[in-house]
Specification:
about 250 residues; alpha+beta; six-stranded antiparallel sheet
Length: about 250
């Protein structure tokens, strides 16, 4: 028996192509979303590693420098031989971190963190000059040490490839500011962390707090889909890198 074969009509062909195109589009969107999610998680890991690294720098401080160097409010001046960056009367205690918002040539706002050596201009461990220092709270010890920022700065630009931004849970990425002191007490040897939600040009330890600090990592530079941001928590009394914890999506509130 002779049969007849009827091909696809134009409408059927267009319908098949439309469905195929839709499936391909959905697959591509899912792939793109997965890649952006991975990029965001990588950016969060990098921020987490950065803050942990600042504690590692504090733990690795050495102060065996030439006593012929001089110490001033601007940091440390090298001797004629160019040796060392600290002196017997000018000690590196840790790091000072200052976060700032800056505007690029196109008018877009980004963030960076500048890390400086935290330099004590007074030797509070000297019992002759400071006879009762071991009886004082740690914050007062640091205040007595007259801490200044050293001249050497290391900058971490959050723009990079991801352009993530930091903020407090209730703050704004465009006005984010932070000054943090991570320093080892010259009396007890213990590391302490203090911060304030502004950018200090002159370190004022007495205006800082020792408390939990949540920093949310805004994903808008990567994913603008209303997802809950991840973040990091720097625990009150943070003394080493393990006190910098990751916060999962929804925890940074």
């Amino acid at each position: 028996m002779n049969g007849t074969w009827r091909g696809f009509t134009i409408i059927e062909t267009m319908l098949v192509l439309a469905i195929t195109g839709l499936v391909v589009a959905v697959v591509l969107v899912n792939i793109g979303t997965a890649l952006r999610n991975e990029q965001y998680h990588t950016a969060v890991d990098q921020v987490h590693d950065y803050f942990q690294g600042q504690y590692s720098l504090t733990s690795a401080i050495q102060n065996d420098r030439s006593s012929t160097n001089t110490c001033s409010s601007g940091g440390v001046k090298l001797d004629d031989n160019g040796s060392g960056r600290a002196t017997s009367n000018c000690f590196i205690l840790g790091r000072v971190l200052r976060a700032e918002v800056y505007t690029d040539l196109s008018g877009a706002k980004h963030q960076r963190i500048n890390s400086f050596p935290a330099i004590a201009r007074r030797d509070v461990a000297d019992p002759i000059q400071f006879p009762n220092e071991d009886q004082k709270p740690a914050k007062q010890v640091f205040a007595d040490a007259s801490i200044v920022m050293g001249d050497q700065v290391s900058s971490y630009d959050l723009a990079g490839e991801s352009d993530v931004k930091l903020k407090t849970p209730t703050g704004d990425v465009n006005t984010f500011a932070l000054t943090m002191l991570i320093a080892r007490s010259p009396i007890s040897g213990r590391v302490h962390t203090y911060y304030t939600s502004n950018t200090q040009a002159v370190i004022n330890v007495n205006s800082m707090v020792e408390a939990d600090l949540k920093l949310c990592i805004d994903p808008a530079g990567i994913i603008n889909m209303g997802i809950s941001p991840m973040g990091i928590l720097i625990e009150k009394g943070a003394a080493n890198a393990s006190a910098v914890r990751m916060l999962g999506s929804g925890e940074c509130v």
